[in-house]
Design goal:
Layout (H helix, E strand, L loop, with lengths): L4 E2 L4 E6 L5 E7 L6 E3 H11 L16 E3 L3 E3 L4 E4 L4 E6 L21 H8 L15 H14 L4 E9 L2 E2 L20 H16 L6 E8 L13 H10 L4 E6 L10 H4 L3 E3 L5 E3 L7 E2 L2 E2 L4 E7 L9 E4 L5 E4 L13 H24 L10
Antiparallel strand pairs: 1-2, 2-3, 3-8, 4-7, 5-8, 6-7, 9-10, 9-11, 11-17, 12-17, 13-14, 15-16, 18-19
Helix pairs in contact: 1-3, 1-7, 3-7, 5-7
Amino acid sequence: MSFNTFGHLFRVTTFGESHGPAIGGVVDGCPPGIRFRLEEVQAALDKRRPGQSRFTTQRREPDEVKILSGVLAEADGMLTTTGTPIALLIENVDQRSKDYAAISESYRPGHADYAYDAKYGLRDHRGGGRSSARETAVRVAAGAIAAKVLTGVTLTGALVQMGDIVIDRANWDSAEIGRNPFFCPDAAAAARMEAYLDGIRKAGSSVGAVIEVVAEGVPPGLGAPLYGKLDADLASALMSINAVKGVEIGEGFASAALTGEANADEMRMGNDGRPVFLANHAGGILGGISTGQPVVVRFAVKPTSSILTPRHTVTRHGEDADIVTKGRHDPCVGIRAVPVGEAMVACVLADHVLRHRGQVGTPPVWPFPR
């Protein structure tokens, strides 16, 4: 199987399966001299870790990350990157493969089973194998390292919609994101989500979600106007996350309902002699290049395919069948997709920072040289 690597200069390769002994990855291209603590990487993984509330899968994985290479340990506990490949390992300790025995010959509707089998002529029915969201733990670890490359950039991910419950942006409180199990910035919406998802969970069903990631402090000039667009790379990275079915930048699909006057991000000169944008409909990216405004991306996550309601399907042998997927599953996989989205945005931005540095040097300084 090819295509296990993403990125150009900041490159991440992952390996492992959901029910194998471990998952892991290699971060290649990280500059030397980046300092961080292992606890910082672990903290990012803990945000994604399963089994932390009744609203996520009850698979009990500590997701303890080990760094096998690419860093030097200092006496104060700091790690410093050496510029060589950083190898990451996360052991799987709570697999229950027997939960999937009953569906070993049947394809789960909405899951990757059939497409995977059609391509490779085999599949790992135990939780999806390589196509399982378990793989995203490695992305989160890599993203924590990428974030250290992004000096001055702050990343904030939040769940802004679950099913038909949409947050009220007038109630946005970034501090609230860490206070509820949904990473939701609206306390009132989070309370409604709790009651709603309890009903979904008890019925053995699932529901989708929309996640928003905002990157503040991104310098202008990242990206290229044609085949290296920053927004295209962000869309590709986010679409690679399991169960993601849509990505938008800035106003996204809502821009189709705007006029040219309403959509234009007008500009004026600020008191510091630098341009100031009066709006950010473009989500911080114009012509594939960052403007210096906050980069705003959203992605839609479909409902988890593994549900208890009987569904029509077929077997590998061409027989009609009904299927019920038992085991431990997220009633809303979008919840744990929040830290995954943050990680993928961090990796893309780190990659573009290094690409920009390699082509034109440091970020541009206003007024731009002519």
